[in-house]
Amino acid sequence: MRVLSGIQTTGNLHLGNYLGAIKNWVKMQDEGECLYFLADLHAITVHNDPAALRQNTREMAAALIAAGIDPDRSILFNQAQVPAHAELAWLLNCTARIGWLNRMTQFKEKSGKNREGASVGLYVYPVLQAADILIYQTTHVPVGEDQRQHLELTRDIAIKFNTDFEREIFTIPEPYIGATAARIMSLRDGTSKMSKSDPSDMSRINLTDDADMIAQKIRKAKTDPEPLPESLDGLEGRPEAKNLVNIFAALAEKTPAEVLAEYAGQGFGQFKPALADLLVETLAPITARFNALRSDSTALDDHLAKGAEKARTLAQPTLDAAYEALGLVHRT
Ligand code: TYM
């Protein structure tokens, strides 16, 4: 089993990233060979402040290590230090079809009304993501639900390339999407995803939030006046309540049904403080480690350089095989 996943370096880690993806990344370190990377080349597809990018890249490395990614066991690196990602992306741009990219919902959301003014990079973003995955013969990709469409595109690109050139150049990867935490929603609106780009900081829990801030955000989180129901059916049509139960379940490593069995009949006046306590218990040690690591940029750069060296070695054979299959004259 070879595991790979990435995270953009556009801001800080939030609870959606942690429960939807990173928690699984940490667990999978016991199950296979893991590569985790900072998607800095993806971050520049939208407006980019160079100083912020540099800082975010290092801080995201610190956040991942603080969350439990062990740079001695996993290969932790940033895309910009492994040129094979961008090189393979070009080859795959020639395999991916415009019609396939036109169906990508994330591009439509991110480009919004100003589609003509969006960067070409934002449009071909999913092709670079396919290159990230396929360059390492990845078998499993742990991600949140919002990445499912990009993973399907990755599989389509790999299948077409293998078929066109009549060789098994790429392994066809499987998405690994958890059951309860695959889509953590905003604390202010249970119908939209918790995200870095939401202008309201009250909509998300950040890794950098302290215990008081977490308690305040949970206290102010949108809910409804009903008590918690006995069964999952009772959460239908109550997106905010469902989201808080899912967050509780993911943190406690229980199913949502088990959480309801414990809290059925209780109102949010009782449930919210229990949830805030659980959040603080989980996040406080991660935040403390993050604060200890974030300022040592020399140590972080060192981890990333070592990770990138290993990643380059693993990537090269696939890149060579792809050049060869296409008939490109190249050095090996
Ligand atoms: P990114 O940086 O938006 O998010 C990183 C991971 O966090 C997950 N996630 C969520 N999960 C549950 N609920 C949420 N509210 C939530 N918000 C974010 C995402 O699904 C993701 O797993 N395109 C990717 C980065 C990427 C990548 C890759 C991932 C680039 N190349 C190759 C996998 C493989 C992205 O923007 O993730």
From TrEMBL:
Chief place where the protein resides: cytoplasm
Keywords associated with the record: Aminoacyl-tRNA synthetase, ATP-binding, Cytoplasm, Ligase, Nucleotide-binding, Protein biosynthesis
Biological-process GO terms, alphabetical: tryptophanyl-tRNA aminoacylation
EC number(s) recorded for this UniProt protein: 6.1.1.2
Binding site for L-tryptophan: 132
Record motif 'HIGH' region, residues: 9-17
GO MF term set: ATP binding; tryptophan-tRNA ligase activity
Residue stretches in coiled coil: none
Signal peptide (residue range): none
Motif 'KMSKS' region boundaries: 193-197
Subunit note: Homodimer.
Membership in a protein family: Belongs to the class-I aminoacyl-tRNA synthetase family.
Name of the featured protein: Tryptophan--tRNA ligase
Organism (species): Sphingomonas cavernae
